[in-house]
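Q: what does this look like with flavin-adenine dinucleotide bound?
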Amino acid sequence: MNVDVAIVGGGPVGGSLARALAPTGLSVALVEPKVPRPLPATGFDQRVYALNGHSRRFLERCEVWQRLSPQRIAPVREMRVFGDDASKIEFSAYRSGVSELAVIVEEANLQQALQSTLSAQANLTLLTGIECVSARWDESFATLSLSDGKQIEARLVVAADGAESALRSLAGIATRIQEYGQTGVVANFRAERAHRDTAYQWFLSKGVLALLPLPGNHVSMVWSAADAHAQDLLAATAEELAKMVEQASSGTLGRLQSISAAAGFPLRRMRAARLISPRLALVGDTAHNVHPLAGQGLNLGFADAQALAAVLAARGLESDCGAVSLLRRFERSRGEDLLAMEAVTDGLHVLFDSNLPGMRRLRNAGLRFANRISPLKRLLVKRALG
Ligand SMILES: Cc1cc2nc3c(=O)[nH]c(=O)nc-3n(C[C@H](O)[C@H](O)[C@H](O)COP(=O)(O)OP(=O)(O)OC[C@H]3O[C@@H](n4cnc5c(N)ncnc54)[C@H](O)[C@@H]3O)c2cc1C
């Protein structure tokens, strides 16, 4: 098969890129081994994402947003972040002049909506249930070998195959990795008290605990904890885990009841040395991983997809969509955003991971200070909203 663009990896970033390329007139193939999970009939998906305004507008333009199950989306209208003394900082959509600070969407909801949009897309070949097993780059095209024995020739290959990307290694692109020694433990709960569309986050000596609102009185937890503590959380029974979360969150939402099994994700910071090489572009988690404490990994990935689609749409008289000049334009357009987000999430991680008394005083004082300065808060909200 011959196409202009072959995207390897149909996760949220690869899938949305395929959709964003629809108006460019380019022929596209999307290779993804997994079939999208159905939405759970009861309860919620274990994986949920906090998406900012940029991501929402991008999904709207891609006509994916319109296909999400609306009753499964939860708005975040308030955000409360607590230090490990009584310090806190609060953000409000109302006071920021916006309808919501973020939206919480289940991964299965997003993948189902993507799949239904993509299956109707002209100029797109969906290769689901198939894996890319090797790749070769020549001067005028790249060749991908697939697990069904077939091959794809493409002017441009996009690696969207996730943090452990085989394509990135095949292309010889190095990575800088910093292991955090932490695991992100996720689970969903029913809460006794209404969350009132509020996202909570506690910076504790036992890690960073976030409770994100889900429809009804439900919340989704992300507890970024040192590996040993994460093992305790994962080994706990449903009742024990609910009790641990209740205690760590000072009973803010009353009694909690587990409604899903817990799962753990090792956390690390990763940055690919380059976003491009001849006839290859990296997007999403293939290009960068950031700490989930700011909930920005997928937001960054959507911004990559949007940037690459914009460069390819504006290619003008350039007939080769894998041309180095286009790829360089894409890489340049992402540099500042990626650096800024890494610096913010890493800075927060360093500040809040330390138990040195001086550092604890500094961060708690910082939260109180920032909470009193309205322009600073507005700036933080603007940055988070995208
Ligand atoms: C605990 C936790 C909480 C998070 N919360 C948030 C949040 O609130 N907001 C946010 O913005 N981000 C969040 N993130 C980050 C977010 O999960 C990732 O940034 C996002 O999933 C990346 O999407 P992706 O499409 O780049 O990669 P992936 O979702 O990893 O998709 C990669 C795809 O490639 C496919 N693939 C792999 N190998 C091959 C192959 N050989 N051939 C073909 N296909 C292949 C895989 O099957 C997969 O579907 C969180 C992360 C963690 C760990």
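The first strand starts at residue 2 and ends at 8. The two ends are 38 Å apart (CA to CA).
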